[in-house]
Amino acid sequence: MAEILRHATEVFCEKGYEGASMRDLSRATGMSLAGLYYYFESKEKLLYLIQKHTFRTVVDTLRQRLAGVRDPEQRIRIFIHNHLEYFLANSEAMSVLSHEDDVLRGAAGAEIAAIKREYYRICVGLVADWKRGGSVKSGAANGGRRHANDAEIRIAVLSLFGMMNWIYTWHRPRTDGDAGALARQMGDIFLYGLSASNGRGTTKRRKRWANRTAAH
Amino acid sequence: MAEILRHATEVFCEKGYEGASMRDLSRATGMSLAGLYYYFESKEKLLYLIQKHTFRTVVDTLRQRLAGVRDPEQRIRIFIHNHLEYFLANSEAMSVLSHEDDVLRGAAGAEIAAIKREYYRICVGLVADWKRGGSVKSGAANGGRRHANDAEIRIAVLSLFGMMNWIYTWHRPRTDGDAGALARQMGDIFLYGLSASNGRGTTKRRKRWANRTAAH
Amino acid sequence: MAEILRHATEVFCEKGYEGASMRDLSRATGMSLAGLYYYFESKEKLLYLIQKHTFRTVVDTLRQRLAGVRDPEQRIRIFIHNHLEYFLANSEAMSVLSHEDDVLRGAAGAEIAAIKREYYRICVGLVADWKRGGSVKSGAANGGRRHANDAEIRIAVLSLFGMMNWIYTWHRPRTDGDAGALARQMGDIFLYGLSASNGRGTTKRRKRWANRTAAH
Amino acid sequence: MAEILRHATEVFCEKGYEGASMRDLSRATGMSLAGLYYYFESKEKLLYLIQKHTFRTVVDTLRQRLAGVRDPEQRIRIFIHNHLEYFLANSEAMSVLSHEDDVLRGAAGAEIAAIKREYYRICVGLVADWKRGGSVKSGAANGGRRHANDAEIRIAVLSLFGMMNWIYTWHRPRTDGDAGALARQMGDIFLYGLSASNGRGTTKRRKRWANRTAAH
DNA sequence: GATGAATGAGGTTTCATTCAT
DNA sequence: TATGAATGAAACCTCATTCAT
């Protein structure tokens, strides 16, 4: 039952997986303790379902939004925007998702890990594309340079994940803006660094992107 | 006892604060359950001590390393390096530190929050300096530019924290390199973005930094 | 469950509230430790329920027995008899009731205190009536006597409570007789003092009472 | 150490024997936990010492005060006064004494029980004397009546103890008067009953007593 | 004399879970 | 489909007590 999952997500978010008791969930959902067990065979399974549903939604939405967009930068920006949008709209779910990483054991854990890997791979692909694209754009200046190192990309992607996932730690809707604004800033930092928001010669690029995303 | 704190940190890291039981800690430290309570009046107090000690160490070491260094970029790189170095060397402690953010209530919680704020403020200062300094370097081209927006800096700093703190999630010593390597990459990303590791015109800056840090 | 309450009462009586552990109660009732907590949210709540039930029963039974009886002396004797009867039949409950006076905090404590006050007030009323009535009976000889002092009545009533409540300390069913016999003796002492059982001029009164209570 | 015993008495009184922990005692006395064990081999022994000291004092003082007084009524009044005086002056000690009746096991328990029995016997003697004396005074009216029954005396004495010991439950120094006043009232009730304070023909006796105690 | 350090046993309470209905 | 009743295990913590110093 989606209703139950939603409430459970909230509770897991507030108290953490270990900290949330089945009684808490029972109270939050209005369903009896035993009733919960009719639907979900264990607390762990509940977490599994939440994580699976959340992550699948993120990945699937992402794929839809990426479809048809070719520009490497825009694709990365879409990735970030998609992530943050979902994150902020379902911050509870994402918090659970991020935190309770290693709770699930066995098959369930493997399945979740698989979805996460899929998501990660998509991002790696986007970054690799951008890097390849970048070398084209920047033309001969990039001359005989080696291809973007896998290890470098890995670090970059995981850094990006860190930026985005850490948000649940500090985001205040009032002052920090919505997913759009945050995505732009984080995208700038990820792609061009602090200088991006600084006028250190990235103005043109940002303009270009702004134009693009306006159409988005 | 430092010995006990070290073991406790490990256990908290492995299982999380809620997930770790005092019995676990007892087993890990080799001290009796009651013995633990002789030294630490409660599980919460234990967490408090760990967090306090860890964070204070980080902040104090940072201040020492910053002392005498004037160059804004270098100062930011020192910040990152310091953070990651401690993070990787004491990944357990940092994990506990990062995660169990809202467990502590009352005075203890406030004290920890204060140290964290202090740390955060230092970083904000570094970034603001860099941004000011940047306008000088980039010369007249930056002419009538507005001052770096506080909100922008906030987002940037918190993004940096995210990058760095998320590490405990993915870092594999074998393949991901040490604090020095990671700090360089994350510094690049933070300051110049993906392009940094890409040869997109940041080469010179990186060289300069590399020279400096060689001396460091 | 009444069954559980009864067993719990016994245990509280034997070991006192502090001395009785939930494990003891679990053993005595045959119910699992966790089972107890299913019914009673805490040890304190258990004590509250026992005290409430016991005291209410005493007060309610007393009111029924007083209904319809007009003679002031008889009413006092009924009070004593009712108290002792319940006390001896449920000596455990009464012991708990009497002793664990200040354990309960907050609302629960207030509620119990209220019932006790109600009980006390009834007794005060009976004694005041008897004293008023007494002056009538003893006729003109008592002429300009002052009204019975509130303070005096208070001391008298509390002394009576002492006599009766202390019983759990020494009563041996074999040698000390049943509630009826004890009530008669304590009533005599309370109303006429040692002299009563002594033939010091109280014989007539006692005879009268004996006749009345025979019908009772 | 008397100092320690005094503090311990206070704590036992406030929290009861079971409820008071050795740590509480340590805190109250300012002596280390282990230090307490240097002086008293166990918590139980501590209780034993308190009870022994308290009871011995009561009994010995009583004997001194009874010495030389011959009038049976006065002797009883002295008993009551002595008891209440000590009780009110050392209400904590007496509370502990009264409550923790059955905690002590073995030799210690037997010793305390012996002192208590001694005390009880004294009172029984006083009452028996009074009754014998009384039958003489009341003259022929008492005709061929049997001697005061042992069982009757037992109940009477224990009732008196109840009256007196229950005091810790309700006594408020401000409104309830001091040991002298209370002893007079309780003496009246015990000897002559409610009527005593009522003017129901006991006035003369009370006057007599008043004269006697004035000399006391 | 007196204590800091340490402990095994046991305290109250809550946990995830089951099962008859 | 859903639940009230019940449980074994384990949670955090405190107990009276000991012992080397």
The end-to-end span of chain A amounts to 34 Å
Instruction: Provide the structure class of chain A.
Output: mainly alpha
Residue windows where pLDDT falls under 50 for at least 5 positions of chain A: 135-146, 199-216
What is the C-alpha radius of gyration of chain A, as a whole number of Å?
20 Å
Bin the helical content of chain A: over 70%
Molecular shape of chain A? elongated
Q: SSE string of chain A, helix = H, strand = E?
A: HHHHHHHHHHH
Number of helices of chain A: 11
Quaternary assembly: homotetramer
Largest sheet of chain A: none
Number of strands of chain A: 0
Greatest interface by residues involved: C-D, 54 and 53 residues
- Please state roughly what percent of the residues of chain A sit in beta strands, choosing from under 5%, 5-15%, 15-25%, 25-35%, 35-45% or over 45%: under 5%
- Report the mean per-residue pLDDT of chain A as an integer: 80
